[in-house]
Specification:
alpha/beta; Rossmann fold; Helicase, Ruva Protein, domain 3; 2 domains; seven-stranded mixed sheet; two-stranded antiparallel ribbon; 12 helices; 39% helix
C-alpha cells in the first residue's frame, strides 16, 4: 500500500470494511493500464462503481469527458470530497450500486457510455447481471472481478465453469479477460486472484428484447441440478405438471436435445432453442 493511501486512511480515521469487499487499487500505473484496456477515450461518459481511494477514478478522468463514480462508503465519500482528491469533472455519488436506477442514470448521459469498475467481490455477480439488462444502452463494461467469476462469464460448453451465467453472457454479449492480477495488486491483498473482464454487447443479438427473463429462467432451471439430466431438471422446475413428462420429451426432441443429456453438455444456442420451444407449450413459469 502506498504511503499516501495509508496516510489518508489514518488521517481520516477510516477502517476498511470487510462486508463491503474493500480491496483497493493503489498503483497509479496499473490504473492507467486498466483504463487503456477498457478503451476509455476522449468524449466518453464513464460510470465507475467503487471509487475507493480514487486511483482508478483519476486514471479514467484523464481520458474521459465525464466520470460518475459511485461509492457506498460514506467515510470515503466525505474524505474524497473534503480533500478534493478527484478532478472537477468527476461526480462522486454516495450510493449502493445495486440500488441505483441504472436506466435513468445512463439515459441522463451522452453516448458513448462505458462502465469501468473494481467491483466488490460480494456484489460482482448481481452487478454483472444488472449490466446485462443495460447492454443496449452501453458501449461496453470493463470490470475487475474474482478470477472464478470471470471464468463463469467466459466459459464455453464442456468447460468446468460452464453454467447458466456463461450461457446468459454467450447469448447477449462478447466477453474477454484482458488481464489477470494477483492479490498483491490490491490493499488489503485478497485471498483470491482477480481478472479484468471487458464485455461488449453482441453486434448480432441472439435474443429478442422480451426474451431475456424467460430464457434466464429456463437456463437457471436447466443448471439447477448439475448431476441430473435435462429432462429431470425441467420436470423439477415445474414448467409442466410432473405427470406430463411426454410434453417435455416432445419439446426436447423438437430441438434435438437428448433427454438424458446434462445442461453442461448443451451449447447456448441449443438452450435458447429449448427455451423458445418450451415457451410455446406452457405459459407457466418455474418456481
Amino acid at each position: 500500500m502506498s504511503e499516501s493511501a495509508r496516510s489518508l486512511l489514518n488521517r481520516r480515521g477510516l477502517r476498511l470494511r470487510r462486508e463491503l469487499g474493500q480491496n483497493f487499487l493503489t498503483d497509479a500505473r496499473l490504473a492507467d493500464r486498466l483504463a487503456d484496456l477498457a478503451g476509455v477515450q476522449e468524449g466518453d461518459q464513464v460510470i465507475e462503481v467503487g471509487t475507493g481511494l480514487g486511483v482508478l477514478t483519476r486514471a479514467l478522468a484523464k481520458r474521459a469527458a465525464r466520470v460518475i463514480s459511485v461509492e457506498i462508503d460514506s467515510g470515503l465519500v466525505l474524505a474524497l470530497k473534503e480533500e478534493a482528491l478527484l478532478p472537477d469533472h468527476v461526480e462522486l455519488v454516495h450510493a449502493d450500486a445495486l440500488d441505483l436506477d441504472w436506466s435513468a442514470l445512463i439515459a441522463g448521459l451522452d453516448s458513448p457510455v462505458r462502465v469501468v469498475a473494481n467491483l466488490p467481490y460480494s456484489a460482482a455477480t448481481p452487478l454483472l447481471r444488472i449490466l446485462l439488462d443495460q447492454r443496449d444502452r452501453l458501449e461496453d463494461w470493463s470490470v475487475m472481478v474474482q478470477r472464478e467469476v470471470a471464468r463463469r462469464c467466459v466459459s464455453r460448453c464442456g468447460q468446468p465453469d460452464y453454467g447458466s451465467f456463461a450461457v446468459l453472457h454467450a447469448l447477449t454479449v462478447d466477453a474477454q479477460v484482458q488481464q489477470d492480477l494477483g492479490p498483491g495488486s490490491f490493499f488489503p491483498p485478497p485471498k483470491v486472484h482477480s481478472s479484468f473482464l471487458r464485455v461488449w454487447p453482441r453486434r448480432t443479438p441472439l435474443l429478442r428484447s422480451d426474451e431475456l427473463l424467460w430464457v434466464e429462467r429456463v437456463i437457471r432451471a436447466a443448471f439447477a441440478k448439475r448431476r441430473k439430466t435435462i429432462l429431470n431438471t425441467l420436470r423439477a422446475a415445474g414448467f409442466v405438471a410432473r405427470e406430463e413428462r411426454s410434453v417435455l420429451e416432445s419439446v426436447l426432441a423438437q430441438v434435438e436435445i437428448d433427454p438424458s443429456a446434462r445442461a453442461e453438455s448443451i451449447d447456448p444456442t441449443r438452450l435458447l432453442a429449448l427455451a423458445r420451444a418450451l415457451r410455446t407449450v406452457t405459459d407457466k413459469e418455474p418456481n
